[in-house]
Write a structure and sequence with these properties.
By secondary structure, the chain is α+β, with helices and mostly antiparallel strands. Helix content is 43%, strand content 15%. It contains nine helices and five strands; from the N terminus they run H-H-H-H-H-H-H-E-E-H-E-H-E-E. A five-stranded mixed sheet has the order 2-1-3-4-5, with helices on both faces. A hairpin with a 5-residue loop joins strand 1 and strand 2. Helix 2 crosses helix 3 and helix 8 packs across helix 9. The longest helix has 21 residues. It is elongated, with a radius of gyration of 23 Å. It starts with a helix and ends in an 18-residue tail after the last strand.
């Protein structure tokens, strides 16, 4: 038995009995790293990670190069640490009903918030809905943009036609942590709504997510009403 085996056994037993309730961040990271460094003292590794990144969440959000720069952290530890956010997101997405109508701002918020967990860049999603507001397809249509103005109207229109969507909900995240639309967000939303309207497809809402919170541009009156269509007198 190695010098650390008894300590590891006690830590695992403590977790099995009470979860992470009485673990501080150092202990939680130490326990996690048992499975990446089976023959090393992971307490020192946990201290080094928290000193470098400042918080438990920042450790899990660090990229590969940043993690490898921490003394004692190798590829196995990087893989494990990077896996945790991805597994968490997959778990929450799996818990989100995929066939219920997205017919309110609250339903849209619940649908999109898990998709932005732990993201380190701005992403724009398009959710395509059928006539009963049920999801048909959801996909990222832009990554790494500074605002929604970069969203390609032609790409969005092609998706709507491909999946025969009756409506679309857009969503993107603000890395600033503030879920308020910029002037560019409002301008681009109006532009995309007009492009979809030409196809007979409604842009139902634009959801902005930040730090687990969201706002609905439609509910908050931030989406321009489209001009009424006028017919030709017979």
């Amino acid at each position: 038995m190695g010098v650390h085996d008894g300590h590891r056994s006690r830590m695992k037993e403590r977790f099995r009995g009470h979860g992470l309730e009485n673990f501080n961040d150092i202990n939680a990271l130490e326990l996690l790293l048992f499975y990446a460094a089976p023959r090393r003292d992971t307490n020192g590794m946990a201290h080094a990670l928290l000193e470098r990144f400042g918080s438990f969440s920042a450790v899990l959000e660090a990229n590969e190069q940043e993690l490898l720069a921490v003394p004692g952290i190798g590829e196995n530890a990087v893989t494990l640490l990077r896996l945790i956010p991805e597994v968490s997101r997959r778990y929450l997405l799996d818990k989100t009903p995929s066939n219920e109508p997205i017919d309110s701002a609250e339903a849209a918020g619940r649908y999109f918030i898990p998709r932005f967990m732990y993201e380190t860049e701005e992403i724009v999603y398009a959710l395509l809905l059928d006539a009963r507001k049920r999801p048909i397809h959801c996909t990222a249509i832009s990554r790494g943009t500074v605002d929604a103005a970069e969203v390609n109207a032609r790409r969005l229109a092609e998706l709507a036609l491909q999946y025969r969507a009756s409506a679309v909900i857009l969503a993107h995240n603000h890395r600033s942590g503030v879920a308020l639309p910029s002037v560019e967000d409002e301008t681009s939303t109006a532009r995309l709504a007009r492009a979809l309207d030409l196809l007979g497809v409604e842009l139902s809402d634009h959801i902005i997510v930040a730090d687990g919170d969201f706002i609905s541009m439609a509910s908050d009156g931030m989406m321009e009403p489209l001009p009424a269509k006028t017919g030709t007198a017979g």
